[in-house]
Automatic annotation (TrEMBL):
Keywords: Lipoprotein, Palmitate, Signal. InterPro entries: Iontro_rcpt_C, Solute-binding_3/MltF_N. Residues 9-231 form the Solute-binding protein family 3/N-terminal domain. This is Transporter substrate-binding domain-containing protein. The keyword Lipoprotein applies. It holds the Pfam family SBP_bac_3. One of its GO terms (molecular function) is ligand-gated monoatomic ion channel activity. Residues 9-231 form the Ionotropic glutamate receptor C-terminal domain. One of its GO terms (cellular component) is membrane. The lineage of its organism: Bacteria, Bacillati, Bacillota, Bacilli, Bacillales. The keyword Nucleus does not apply.
Amino acid sequence: SSSGGAEKKVKVGIDTTYPPFEFEDGGDYVGIDIELIKAIAEDQDFEIEFKPMDFKGIIPALTAGQLDVAIAGMSITDARKKEVDFSEPYFEAGLSLVVNKDNSEITGPEDLKGKMIAVKKGTTGADMAAELAEEHGTEVRLFDDSPAMFQEVSNGNADVLIEDYPVIAYAISQNTNLKLKIVGDRLNGDFYGIAVEKGKNADLLKKINEGLNNLRDNGKYDEIVNKYLGE
Ligand code: GLN
């Protein structure tokens, strides 16, 4: 840099209880999001430092200027576009309804009348639950992280949860003691984006999009995704 000072590290907000996108393994942050942002930073020659937090705190931290970037399995939504600027979409997700393995009663949103639904604060799943509550008189219980929400339904303390399809499919495949199953088709479709503070980070956003494109072109993007999700 021409300023002569040490290059300022880009602060990256992450939700570290969200495998396969971001989680801790032996004291290190790992996962698709973690490896992607590291590879983007390397490709575009900037330094990053991770700031782990509950998902609900990430957008407020970005708008308060405490974070420069967020990569957190964060879905691009019109509402969020008013608060943050998003990169190009980098992963297709969408929400699934999930029940206890032993539950054969709930096969779709129409069976949710009077049921207890578990969702994570600040997520698109929580927004969907609020809509379902209005439409079907479902009750909503809010959690700070996904693993606690999974336990609630696995234990039979709540009837149903809503989670991003790739996340819940991965959790079920990895944890044989989670008594959960996905019901029906996805409730919606969406894409993950990398967020930056709105209106103030055009240069950084440009680098992120360029880095993402380079990783797609050079095969690194596929390599990272396949490492966690297989071919
Ligand atoms: N994709 C969902 C959202 O954007 C959930 C993200 C998460 O729980 N980390 O709200």
